[in-house]
Amino acid sequence: MKLEILNPHGFCAGVKSALEKARRLAISGERIYCLHEIVHNEIVVAELKTRGFVFVEDLSEVPEGATVMFSAHGVSPAVRREAESRGLKIEDATCPFVARVHRAAADFHAGGLQVIVIGKPSHAEVKGILGEAPDAIVISSLEDADRLTFPDGDCGKVGVVSQTTMNADDVAEIATRLSKRFEIESVAEVCNATKERQDAVKAFDGDAILVLGSSNSSNTRRLRDVARCRSFRAGNIGELKALDLGGIGRLGVTGGASTPESFFGTALEFLKLKYDTIPL
User: Any catalytic annotation for residue 125?
Assistant: First the structure.
């Protein structure tokens, strides 16, 4: 098997910043509560648990006066207000690119535009964005864009933003489709780290792609979506060992933006030993 490492890989700037902040906090020895997983990676979350982090899904689970960290995916203004009203000590690990999307959605809403969010309704990032524009509409596909209607008929200009970890091509196509139906003002795009990884996968012309990252990571799943060959995913060494990669001539290896380099290196060593890989 010939092995090709696709670049970039490893933590993006937003993930790196969030984890540096979390690890600094952990030095204090204080119990730190994090609202949702700080990033969607099981190895990262397990590490922080050993450092005293407690991950919760609702602020009601955080004791009065405790420290709460907001994940890299961001939170709604209502969540911030609730945390402040309860006297919680807030540490914000929101990715700067996500924060920019929040500001755009808030500005569109304040300017009287109907806000449309291209993303997955259940994703933590989208839930936070919706808090900036309570009447925003979430769409995920070209079909959603085609059937989009407004209760009061013509809504005038619409403001379009997107979840930062979507398929870059899908976001561009959906925004273009919307522009053919409505007058739009758009800042809909995925973050640079997401796009660069997707571009590298799309350019790979080998036999199969192995994406290293957790199953609940949106940017990891999108890397499999854009692959033009067979694709596999593994988020830990157990999942990697369970894969049958035999018979693959040329394997490309990449990782999601929240996948630790330590696991990336461990995975490459395993592939080298089991499949006698030859680096390209």
Answer: yes
